[in-house]
Inverse folding.
């Protein structure tokens, strides 16, 4: 039985754990405030909150319920817009939306309200940019967002003076209803047994699998792994970072030590989907999806990562990530094997890391081309280089030739221009809905240049690389 | 970032706007919206035993159906029945303007996504599974995807239409400069977040009630009756509200409602049919792509003396609303400019795309893009700023439009000059010049975009509406109109009118669902006219009731009716409050057996249009405005941001500043999306490639202009508008066209060799390729 608290009600359901949380909420529980917009995590109309109990405190995150398996709700507190409603008045987030004319047709509105409430409940620092990140996965077709920006601003103002993580404060100040205070105790009291998991498709966050095969997953058995502890956690030993493949992009985003090593981490990760998706999407899923354009795969390739794979008998093998991919959507993974960890050397004071991504829409979009670079430079000489690029080959591509070309070279404009020639020979973009091959080739060059303009702003400007009158 | 010099005029105006916003009425639907309690079609309670439908559609754009095998699908447990054209008791025909569109394909298919059958099952999931079991064999026929190709092959929807004024050929003889060129503007997906859907319930005596997410309840009612072969009074259509429409549910909400009704008719059970997003994207039409050619001639002092344009409209596989949309392209072909010699032709080309349909602006934006392109090209060739040409040709009082209407109460120059002075446009242009001179990684661009948009259905007979107003015993008021609420705030405006006439708190009024049994024979909620038409009818009904109430009050208080006024829920006599309250007055009126219900009809006066001469006075009035758009292009990556959009807009006397500002901002960003980011792609086989939200991108919160300032132009308003508050739904969309030209100007600042291209949208791909084109 899947057991969880939905708003203020304890649920025990024999439903199939592969059904989506959205369908369960809307059609089994008749909570119709959660809307269906796209069923692929791209509009946010179905945003819900997931509260997880950790060491006696509860942490809330927003998710898109349309691509979330019901089984992942097991043992959690799930909040829909109805669960945020106060009896006879509006919550602070709702009032902010109303007062600023931030709702027109109203169909996307509950998603925004839930996401903003999630922001109030979250650990992220209270500022306007973080509030916008909280609604980065919500699409509105009516308002043009300017009014929603004002609403977000009003929420931030209202949150000033908030006691950190205080459900009590949020209740007193009209952000959430009173019952929230009882949830941690109630979650503890629920007897949560491990779900009886059948054999079936491994599903972690589900953010990609549910986009591609929701009907299949709802109809067949799935094996949920999101809660498997042995796949979780981020550890750092001797400057080597090891990430369990169940970790989410948000886990990385929130990791303070990692942020010390990647100074632009949040800027880079902000280009990866939306907050709702980052809260669910696992690294293992991103690697195993094997998309030639997977953002985190490109990120880890440039870190020259290794991956650990374990089989059903818990036997492990290790291989470089750059050797994992064999062809379009094919890779070195046998039946019953699971990606367990990703490891890489952290950037140091002598090394330089950058990530670039261009798509039609800067945020919550799939790249036309993305690229990452990790350079070790001493006395203006490149001692080690790892460059990766996506969207220009059948696999997420580690640029072997370009990387080895750079090694040992002096960091000059000429080196970079010549390295681009090598890069151009290593890629073979095709034309598709994300761009023509000519565009991707040009963009590949530009993003390669962009790495150096970003990393060495005093040394290089665009003018150094491109000729124009 | 450059800090703006302090500008006291602008600051005081922005202050006034922000005060007006605080005081303005909030959208009355917002309380239930923010709580998730508003009811859309998929939220209404369904009867036990309701079936669910999924549409089986053509996997080819053009071909002959050789064979279909439904047997495996029918055998699937939970499948109730599969309906095809053979099950249609009436006519298998849903075309609105021209009867050229079958509900279900018969022998041929004409677009990829064309409905062939409706699978009805116990759940949507089962129906979808059954769909995968249907086997179909289609013999391929040649596929046309572009309007140029259609024209070459003589494939048209109807005869071309042409407007003319003066003599263009002669006009060109007097010109110092003449330029010709080609433009393309792509389609646009509506992307209402609520997909198409309907719920049909059989009632007694073969009557059917349909809850539909439609902008046109009467169109649904009429078409269901026609397809079922029953009288219209058997069919009741009810609309609670729409999760966005934008024109996409004016005509194209109909087929789904008809299919649900057809299944309900046969099964005598309720049937729900809600399209999933992929089906909706694949099966429904969009804004029309246009391929156009133009010739523009200017005098030495930059006056446009002659303008010719031929617009090829990609209509798709059936007429739908294309002929009406084509017509509006001609109405707006010269945008805000007076051109003495005009010759414009539009050709609706029949292709094998889903029938394209209404979309905010209704052909107007496509026409305006062409003349703005012509101006940009001319300016580039002559070596002046496009702004100079725009400014030299703005409409004046008593100028004639090419369709014969004489421009009155023109605000074109007023909004233009106000925008220039309030926003200090000269400083803005100077700042951009300075920025571009000192920055190599980034370049900025600016563009002006004036708009002029006519308000009314251009099909004159559609300009009418009715309202049914009840005052209940306790003094509360219920209002029914033909207006469909889809986010534009029309519910609030209707309630405002009643509350204002009766001088009662707005909470004492209620807007009912839009229902064909209460208000019949309606025009769709479209053409920006919904508040005007239905508001005027509501006003008329309320005023009639007010008159009767005054009679009762004057008898009761022994005074003349002229001395009576209703104020704050009391009767006032000669400006003095009497003892008689609103509720008491209502009771007394009831006791006197005076009707507390009124049904009023409003038809827009003055308008007319003669399609044989292509001349007349089709619009009640025009809406004007000017936008200044600035952008910054990242020349390394080809990405861009919009720094600001500064607008002086003609609201007339806005009755709801907050709601109207929301319309301006929303339309603007939708227009920018059309011009920059939203890219519809079909392959040569006619298959939609931008078939999901992962491949079709609309603006998100990070892609909107950082700064949007909208200042109302000082004006008297127009009596033809409801309470002088002008229509606001569509016109501001066309400000977005400026985004295209701002980007182009930034590209030119980086790459002087860039050869101007007029091929929208200006995606990051096109920007990067242009930055580095030789």
């Amino acid at each position: 039985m899947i057991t969880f608290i939905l708003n203020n009600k304890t649920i025990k359901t024999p439903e199939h754990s592969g059904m989506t949380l959205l369908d369960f909420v809307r059609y089994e529980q008749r909570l119709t405030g959660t809307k269906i917009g796209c069923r692929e995590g791209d509009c946010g109309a179905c945003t819900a909150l997931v509260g997880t109990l950790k060491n006696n405190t509860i942490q809330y995150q927003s998710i898109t319920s349309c691509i979330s398996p019901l089984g992942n709700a097991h043992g959690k507190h799930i909040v829909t817009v109805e669960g945020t409603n106060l009896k006879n008045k509006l919550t602070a987030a709702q009032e902010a939306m109303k007062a600023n004319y931030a709702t027109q047709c109203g169909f996307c509105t509950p998603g925004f309200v839930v996401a903003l409430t999630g922001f109030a409940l979250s650990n992220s620092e209270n500022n306007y940019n973080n509030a916008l990140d909280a609604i980065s996965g919500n699409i509105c077709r009516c308002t043009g967002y300017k009014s929603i920006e004002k609403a977000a601003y009003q929420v931030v103002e209202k949150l000033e003076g908030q006691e950190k993580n205080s459900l009590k404060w949020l209740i007193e100040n009209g952000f959430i209803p009173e019952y929230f205070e009882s949830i941690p105790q109630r979650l503890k009291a629920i007897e949560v047994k491990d779900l009886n998991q059948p054999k079936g498709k491994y599903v972690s966050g589900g953010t990609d699998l549910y986009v591609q095969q929701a009907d299949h997953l709802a109809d067949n058995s799935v094996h949920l792994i999101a809660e498997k502890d042995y796949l979780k956690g981020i550890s750092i030993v001797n400057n080597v970072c090891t990430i369990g493949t169940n970790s989410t992009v948000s886990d990385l985003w929130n990791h303070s030590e990692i942020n010390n090593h990647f100074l632009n981490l949040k800027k880079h990760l902000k280009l990866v989907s939306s907050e709702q998706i980052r809260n669910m999407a696992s690294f293992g899923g991103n690697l195993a999806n094997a998309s030639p354009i997977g953002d985190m795969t490109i990120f880890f390739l440039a870190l020259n990562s290794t991956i650990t794979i374990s089989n059903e008998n818990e036997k492990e093998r290790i291989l470089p990530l750059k050797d994992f991919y064999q062809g379009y959507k094919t890779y070195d993974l046998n039946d019953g094997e699971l990606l367990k960890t990703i490891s890489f050397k952290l950037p140091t004071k002598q090394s330089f890391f950058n990530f670039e991504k261009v798509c039609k829409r800067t945020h919550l979009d799939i790249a036309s081309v993305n690229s990452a670079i990790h350079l070790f430079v001493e006395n203006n000489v490149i001692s080690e280089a790892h460059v990766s690029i996506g969207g220009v080959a059948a696999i997420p591509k580690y640029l072997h030739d370009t990387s080895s070309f750079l090694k040992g070279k002096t960091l000059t404009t000429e080196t970079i221009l010549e390295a681009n020639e090598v890069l151009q020979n290593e890629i073979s973009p095709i034309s598709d809905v994300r761009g023509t091959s000519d565009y991707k080739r040009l963009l590949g060059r530009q993003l390669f240049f962009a790495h150096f303009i970003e990393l060495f702003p005093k040394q290089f400007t665009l003018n150094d690389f491109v000729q124009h009158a | 970032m450059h800090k703006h010099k302090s500008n006291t005029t602008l600051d005081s105006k922005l202050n006034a706007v922000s005060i007006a916003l605080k005081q303005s009425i909030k959208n009355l639907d917002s309380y239930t919206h923010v709580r998730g309690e508003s009811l859309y079609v998929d939220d209404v309670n369904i009867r036990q035993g309701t079936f669910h439908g999924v549409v089986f559609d053509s996997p080819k754009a053009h071909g002959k159906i050789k064979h279909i095998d439904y047997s495996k699908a029918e055998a699937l447990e939970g499948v109730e029945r599969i309906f095809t054209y053979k099950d249609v008791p009436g006519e298998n025909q849903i075309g609105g303007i021209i009867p050229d569109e079958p509900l279900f394909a018969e022998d041929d298919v004409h677009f990829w996504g064309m409905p062939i059958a409706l699978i009805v099952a116990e759940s949507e999931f089962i129906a979808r599974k059954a769909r995968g079991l249907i086997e179909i064999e289609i013999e391929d026929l040649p596929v046309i995807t572009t309007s140029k190709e259609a024209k070459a092959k003589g494939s048209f929807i109807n005869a071309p239409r042409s407007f003319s004024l003066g003599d263009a050929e002669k006009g060109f003889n007097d010109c110092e400069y003449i330029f010709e060129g080609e433009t393309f503007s792509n389609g646009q997906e509506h992307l209402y977040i609520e997909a198409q859907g309907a719920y049909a319930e059989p009632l007694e005596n073969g009557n059917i009630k349909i809850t539909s997410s439609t902008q046109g309840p009467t169109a649904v009612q009429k078409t269901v009756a026609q397809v079922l072969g029953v009288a219209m009074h058997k069919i009741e259509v009810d609309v609670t509200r729409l999760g966005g429409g934008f024109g996409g549910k004016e005509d194209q909400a109909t087929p789904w409602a008809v299919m649900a009704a057809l299944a309900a008719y046969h099964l005598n059970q309720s049937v729900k049919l809600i399209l999933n997003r992929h089906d909706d994207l694949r099966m429904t039409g969009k804004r029309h792509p246009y391929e156009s050619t133009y010739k523009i001639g200017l005098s030495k002092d930059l006056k446009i003396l002659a303008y010719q344009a031929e617009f090829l409209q990609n209509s798709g596989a059936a007429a739908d609303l294309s002929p009406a949309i084509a017509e509006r392209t001609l109405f707006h072909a010269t945008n805000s400019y007076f051109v003495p010699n005009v010759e414009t032709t539009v050709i609706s080309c029949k292709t094998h795309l889903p029938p394209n349909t209404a979309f905010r602006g209704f052909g107007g934006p496509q026409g305006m893009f062409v003349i703005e392109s012509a101006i940009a090209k001319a300016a580039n060739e002559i070596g002046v700023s496009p702004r100079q040409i725009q400014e030299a040709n703005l409409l004046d009082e008593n100028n004639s439009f090419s369709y014969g209407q004489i421009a009155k109460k023109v605000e074109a120059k007023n909004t233009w000059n106000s925008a220039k002075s309030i926003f200090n446009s000269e400083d803005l242009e100077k700042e951009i010049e300075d920025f571009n001179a000192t920055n190599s990684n980034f370049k900025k661009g600016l563009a002006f975009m004036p708009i002029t948009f006519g308000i009314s259905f251009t099909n004159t007979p559609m300009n009418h509406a009715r309202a049914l107003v009840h005052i209940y015993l306790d003094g509360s008021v219920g209002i029914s109109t033909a207006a469909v609420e889809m986010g534009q705030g029309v519910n609030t405006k209707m309630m405002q009118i009643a509350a204002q006439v009766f001088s009662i708190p707005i909470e004492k009024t209620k807007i009912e669902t839009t229902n064909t049994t209460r208000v019949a024979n309606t025009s769709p909620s479209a053409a920006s006219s919904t508040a005007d038409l239905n508001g005027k009818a509501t006003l008329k009904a309320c005023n009639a009731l007010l008159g009767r109430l005054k009679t009762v009050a004057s008898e009761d208080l022994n005074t003349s009716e002229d001395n009576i006024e209703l104020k704050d829920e009391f009767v006032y006599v000669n400006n003095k409050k009497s003892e008689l309250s609103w509720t008491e007055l209502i009771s007394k009126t009831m006791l006197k057996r005076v009707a507390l219900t009124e049904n009023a009809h409003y038809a827009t006066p003055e308008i007319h249009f003669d399609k044989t001469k292509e001349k007349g006075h089709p619009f009640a009035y025009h809406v004007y405005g000017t936008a200044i758009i600035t952008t910054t292009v990242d020349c390394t990556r080809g990405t861009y941001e919009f720094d600001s959009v500064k607008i002086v807009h003609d609201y007339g006397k806005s009755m709801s500043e907050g709601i109207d500002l929301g319309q301006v901002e929303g339309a603007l960003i939708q227009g920018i999306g059309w011009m920059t980011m939203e890219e519809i792609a079909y392959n040569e086989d006619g298959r939609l490639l931008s078939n999901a939200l992962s491949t079709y991108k609309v603006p998100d919160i990070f892609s909107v202009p950082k700064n949007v300032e909208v200042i109302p132009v000082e004006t008297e308003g127009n009596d033809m508008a409801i309470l002088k508050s002008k229509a606001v739904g569509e016109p501001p969309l066309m400000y977005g066209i400026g985004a295209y030209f701002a980007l182009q100007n930034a590209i030119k600042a980086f790459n002087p060799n860039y050869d101007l291209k007029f091929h929208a949208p200006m995606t990051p791909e096109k920007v990067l390729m242009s930055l580095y084109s030789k």
Notes: The mean pLDDT of chain B is 97. Residues 530-557 of chain B form the longest helix (28 residues). Residues 190 and 307 of chain B are 31 Å apart (CA to CA).
